[in-house]
Amino acid sequence: MIRPALSIVVPCYNEAACLDVLHTRISAAARAVVGDDHEIVLVNDGSRDQSWAVMERLAASDPRLVAINLSRNHGHQLALTAGLDLCAGERILIIDADLQDPPELLGDMIATMEAEGADVVYAVRRKREGETFFKKLTAAGFYRVLDRVTDTPIPLDTGDFRLMSRRALDALLSLPEQARFIRGMVAWVGFRQVPFPYDRDERLAGESKYPLGKMIRFALDAVTGFSTAPLRLASHMGLVLTGLSLLLFAYIAIGWLSGSAVQGWTSTMLVVVFLGAVQMFVLGMIGEYLGRLYVESKRRPLYLVADVAGPVKGRASLGY
Ligand code: UDP
Ligand code: MG
């Protein structure tokens, strides 16, 4: 297999308005460091807009561009997986389609990779422009909670924007799981990984493709994929509640001994409702793990490709 020096992999969902500028800016950035020896892999994740038509046009105009059309919307992490699986480069840059992550940093990222002898250079967000207060707050909270509960240290404030070596990517692709939290999986893989601080720009066009529902699912995939701490929470809560119930027992015994036992509808209801809620919560948490176990056990392909435009140089190892 002839490997290009660099692959740039971009998952796209309803990004028609960004694709032309994206193509111009990433080709220029790639050309500045490796000349013609690169490929651009655009993955259309079942967009409802004109993204695929634009990609086909771009593929016809640029022999270095490969466009992959997934059979439907598989979600950001699986679209990215498809692109990574089908790219062939010696080095791989992952970037979003909305140009929030400036492709012009590529040169410096490659320089950092070489200077540090690193396998992964991950971009850490110093500032986030043009994102809502809610998004910034939830994101900041998410990375910190994740850091507390996971067993794998996952870098804070780091998205998927990163440069990887072929051996780090091959290691990543050897992880077969369905619920993919790629930034965590890369951290798990190890090798030498170095941070690269940058300021995140505003989205070029359109709006975030991560509504609240998707964000919650993404966060749950992250936590369940990298920690079993929530499963242990049940036994911790059980312990605390046992302590509390001993206190309550003493209180009831005193009431009974002093002959004022019948009152207490309020406290009884409180205890019943509280315990019911705790049990539901814990059951739900077990359900999150069980559901994922079930999905994994079906061993379905991670993604399905409907069409390809341009020369696919990589060989799929995972998906189909
Ligand atoms: N994306 C995707 N499939 C989806 C949702 C998003 O491929 O189902 C892509 C999207 O086109 C973008 C990247 O994932 O290139 C990150 O999404 P977005 O910029 O909307 O997320 P945000 O930056 O708001 O967190
Ligand atoms: Mg974005």
From TrEMBL:
Location, primary (coarse class): membrane
UniProt subcellular location: Membrane
Topology with respect to the bilayer: Multi-pass membrane protein
Keyword set includes Protein transport: no
Glycosyltransferase 2-like domain: residues covered: 7-172
Cell cycle is among the record's keywords: no
Family annotation (PANTHER family): PROPHAGE BACTOPRENOL GLUCOSYL TRANSFERASE HOMOLOG, UNDECAPRENYL-PHOSPHATE 4-DEOXY-4-FORMAMIDO-L-ARABINOSE TRANSFERASE-RELATED
Name of the protein: Glycosyltransferase
Gene source species: Sphingomonas hankookensis
